[in-house]
Amino acid sequence: MDRLTRSRTAVLFVLMALLLGVFTFRLLRLNTDAESGADSASRDLLTYRTTIPAARGAIYDRNGKELVVNRACYNVDVINFIFFTGSGANDKLLSLYRLFEDADQPVTDHLPVTMQVPYEYTTDDLSDIWRQHYATYLGWKGWDPEMTARNLLLRMRREYRIPDDWSEDDARKVLGVRYELDLRYCAGLDNYTMAADVPSDVLASVLEAKIPGVIVSTTSVREYRTKYAAHLLGRIGKMDAAEWEIYREKGYAMDAMVGKDGLERAFEDKLHGVSGVRYTTVTPDGAVVETYDETEPQAGSNVTLTIDIDLQKVAEDKLAEVVTDLRRNGVGKSQEGKDAEGGAVVAVSCKTGDVLACASYPTFDLTNYSRDFDRLKENKYSPLYNRALSATYNPGSIYKMVTAIAAVDYGGVGRYRKITDKGVYRYYEDQGYTCNCHIYTSSGVTHGTINMMEALSESCNYYFYEVGRETGIDAIDTVAKGLGLGEKTGVELEDHPGTRANPATKKTIYAGTNEADWYGADTLQAAIGQSDNFFTPLQMANYTATLANAGKRYQATFLRRVTSWDENELLYAHRPTVAGTMAISDEAMKTCVEGMRMAAQRGTAAAYLKDYPVAVCAKTGTAQHGSGGSDNASFVCFAPADDPEIAICVYVEKGAQGGNLGQVARAMLEQYFSGDDSLKPYAPENAIR
Q1: Which residue ranges form the domains of the chain, and what is each CATH number?
Q2: Helix segments in 379-447, DSSP class H
Q3: For 559-605, what is each residue's pLDDT tens digit?
């Protein structure tokens, strides 16, 4: 019985062991199959890297009004390895291209071949960096860089299997896209953005097509909230090769947008944020499995300018009005000024050096810069040229305060010194040189016997020929330099330093000729703002502000403050910087202030300022330029006379008479003293920071 029991027990254990073995084997098989399936699935998943552009900082005027902000936009990108997992790639690309084409949506295409027959290379139209990409592509393919454009496209048609029955037009479109997609491999670029800033209705059509690998990405573009200050604000764009060498050391992505000119470029280090990096894992059909941000993008800082956009508007509109009227009607009986070309207006804060307005005419629309570029470039009046900072002009009679200060403080000439204007100045007649007072040349009359303040008020050349000769060029040049003429203003944008008329300047300009020596006649011309005196309107405005400050010259600036993107942190606040100080005696200052005040009340500037309720010191100028046509016109002023706050310079090429420009200055003074220029913080709304 015991033996039978033991036998049955043994059999039971064997059966249990067999069953356990079967179950174990099945379990191991299942685990193995599961692991094998996981590995297979893992091998099918794809991960790609995307640069997440950081929002660029906004730009505001001094009162917090939005000038340049960011607008959310959508791009259509193509992910190579997902797109090509399916069939019919060329057909899908062509249908996508036609969708954009029907909506007038530009398609990104850097293939350096014209779109139409006969095919020609367009490498000269590419930036340096895109020419390098093209060379990389040819090297990657092992193709001859000397082949004709026609042969290149034939080679590409075979390479990319473009159907023979396709038209050349359709083939060229798709080849441009195939080129862009292959560049992502051989040049190591980010995903291909086929179309940027795509409107919502076009996006809907793209999404309805449900093409694997075609995705919509979100980014932002610059939006201008003003049509003014185009010459100042500047543009952003893709980097060229030279810029890439600079910015890649700062961690910029290769396709980052950077400031190309203007304040966008000057404040690039403040406005530009830090891009982030995102990894996206997808299935072969493009379904997103996981996204992971390796680094978050950091938005750029916001920049507040010194510019008052309302004052800028008045400056630009009034300057355009005056120049347009001059071209149509001229000025005076002789109708001079009908050949007026362009001009500039600059307003500076006397107490800080802040540039409050800086206008150049003619101007342009930043929003449509690319579209209008060819037309703007060919315009005979050069609207892209920033006359306020880059053009240098003879100041004419607005320079006479320099000569007056030099005469009083260095030449021993009292401000009540009487001189009789005889019309023609003959001191150097025996050397074959005479010069006329402007009023005598135009009307045959003279200013009679006048003192220095009256000479400033009436802008008497004869008077300043005489005191300029007595004082000498060295003293005159010392004062001009001390007041900032011929010196850099310190603004963040590139500005021309100008030149002062003196023996050293003339020797440099006319080196190697018989005109390099300095003569007494040169001093006469320099004393009235002619000769080799050439300054920018910004310098002339800053000179006027320095005069208003009795010789204290502030560094000019466009930057008021910098804040974090969310406005919670003040990163920088500009403090006025004294660039130089020149001692001016009380007598010399009284001479200038009284003479300029008289000019505004009853002299050459009275037409527009005599009844203005705020006391204004002004000076008009007419400058010969030697290029034919009407004389240039200049005008400067500061106000209030007893406690100056604002200095203004108006300059018009071939504007004929400086007094006519007083209407521009008056309009700006009315805006400035209207009480609208609030310094209270302004909280911008509905803008992506």
Answers
A1: 49-305 (3.90.1310.10), 309-672 (3.40.710.10)
A2: 387-390, 400-409, 438-443
A3: 999 999 999 999 999 999 999 999 999 999 999 999 999 999 999 99
